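Weekly puzzle thread! Below is a chain. First person to post its structure in token form gets bragging rights.
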Amino acid sequence: METGDRVRANTSEEINRQLDHETDARVFAYAQKSADEITRRIKELDREWDMERLLETNASAIAFTGLLLGVTRNKKWLIVPGIVLPFLFQHAVQGWCPPVPVFRRLGVRTREEIDREKYALKVLRGDFNQAGTLPRADTALAAVKA
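Winning reply:
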């Protein structure tokens, strides 16, 4: 899938393929399910944390903890935000930082990847269908890859 997604661009092709395969498998599985089940899955996808949200939360929690410990316990703890915050800046500029490969291997997806699954499910549910017939899963996936 061609994309301007910097996280995908900085992730190994093997991991990207695995995440795409898992998404495709879920879409194919939901092609056999009811519209209500598809709707439930879409709501789950709306709540799924993407890479940006996870990195921002993780970095701010670690930096805040280091700052708090540096102020209340020992100034040496101030090195923690001094390390974490440049990583967050690096991610903002390059789309990569040391935690990204770890999170990607754990299955954390980008917003674009989550949205791809969500919109394929909406195609399956018939949200964009004028004729009223339900498309097949491969048709739904092709619609969101374009």
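Puzzle host: Confirmed. Bonus trivia for everyone else. The mean pLDDT is 91.
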